[in-house]
Design brief:
Helix content is about 35%, strand content about 20%. By secondary structure, the protein is of the alpha/beta class. β8, α6 and β9 form a beta-alpha-beta unit. The chain starts with a strand and ends with a helix.
Length: about 210
């Protein structure tokens, strides 16, 4: 049995107990309880979890596969072909417990991106599900009328895999280990856009 997420721990341990000596239990990420309850724990190295049954990995498990990237290419190759190279794919996250992304921060990011556009780059920009609506609206208005900037306003098909596949360079806000793990699984240069805040855990990963 493979389990992930805190709400999966109790039912997974119950199944293991009921099937003693039969069911082997693998847990992904830090379970926040003793690793002795599990047969194997596969955990991001930046969580600094140790144990004889712990396997550390760089980053987090993710859903970027060759098949998903190919699907993204097929869906958006025509749309993105109008944006000349070099294309910078920009992935915007959102505020969390340790990072801030408000309109002041968004203004700084947008101005820096517009400077890149003025230097001849095309920008393919996408917010995430965690990006506040007000920030999505801000970027949409800020980039309106810029013909070398594609901005997905979270309507219609999500271009996420296409951005990973068809960009020459990737830039992403530094607030998400998962988003960064997905970006570095490609062969593209990846740059982090700094946000106010941070933690030792994020810094260890970065």
């Amino acid at each position: 049995m493979i389990a992930c997420g805190r709400r999966s721990i109790l039912p997974a341990l119950y199944v293991k107990e009921e099937n003693r000596d039969v069911t082997k239990l693998i847990y992904l990420q830090d379970p926040k309880i003793s690793v002795r309850h599990f047969d194997i724990v596969i955990c991001p190295a930046h969580d600094n979890l140790k144990g004889d049954n712990v396997i550390n990995m760089v980053g987090a498990p993710h859903r970027v596969t060759a098949e998903n990237l190919d699907s993204g290419i097929k869906a958006f190759k025509g749309e993105f072909s109008k944006y000349k190279k070099s294309r910078i794919g920009v992935l915007i996250g959102g505020p969390n417990r340790v990072y801030n992304l408000d309109e002041t921060v968004a203004e700084e990011i947008a101005n820096n991106l517009l400077e890149l556009e003025s230097q001849g780059y095309s920008l393919i920009v996408s917010p995430s599900r965690r990006t506040p609506k007000s920030i999505v609206k801000f970027f949409k208005e800020k980039f309106a009328g810029h013909h070398n900037i594609y901005f997905w306003n979270r309507e219609g098909e999500n271009p996420y895999f296409a951005i990973l596949a068809l960009s020459d360079i990737l830039m992403l806000t530094c607030d998400s280990v998962s988003m960064a793990s997905e970006a570095i699984s490609t062969d593209k240069p990846v740059y982090l856009l700094s946000l106010p805040g941070g933690s030792k855990k994020f810094e260890a990963f970065q």
